[in-house]
Amino acid sequence: MIMTRYFMDCRNFPGATKCSVAFAADTKEELLEAVVRHETEVHGCEDTPEFRVRIMRDFREGTPPLKV
Predict the structure, then answer these.
(1) Beta-ladder partners of 61
(2) What are the DSSP calls for 22-47, one per residue?
(3) Cβ(58)–Cβ(38) below 8 Å
(4) CB-side exposure of 8: number of CA atoms within 13 Å?
(5) Cα–Cα–Cα angle for 21, 27, 29, nearest 5°?
(6) pLDDT at residue number 26
(7) Residue 25 phi/psi, 5° resolution?
(8) Contact of 32 with 52, CB cutoff 8 Å
(9) pLDDT tens across 4-55, in order?
(10) Is the pLDDT of residue 3 over 70?
(11) CA 1, CA 14: separation in Å to the nearest integer?
(12) Res 57 pLDDT > 90
């Protein structure tokens, strides 16, 4: 059985911090926790229910590309 992986790539969201970190996980829940931790600690975002919903909209299936 082939499992779907999910990813989110900070390079798709240019901001004040030029971040090149990408995350991938086997589940959306695992990916969400890793991304929330990164966004709050590195980018200073606030962890709210709305923030988590917005983040999950940006999840993609597969793995992050080498170049954006």
Answers:
(1) 6
(2) EEEESSHHHHHHHHHHHHHHHS----
(3) no
(4) 22
(5) 80
(6) 95
(7) -155, 165
(8) yes
(9) 899 999 888 777 678 899 999 999 999 999 999 999 999 999 999 999 999 9
(10) yes
(11) 36
(12) yes
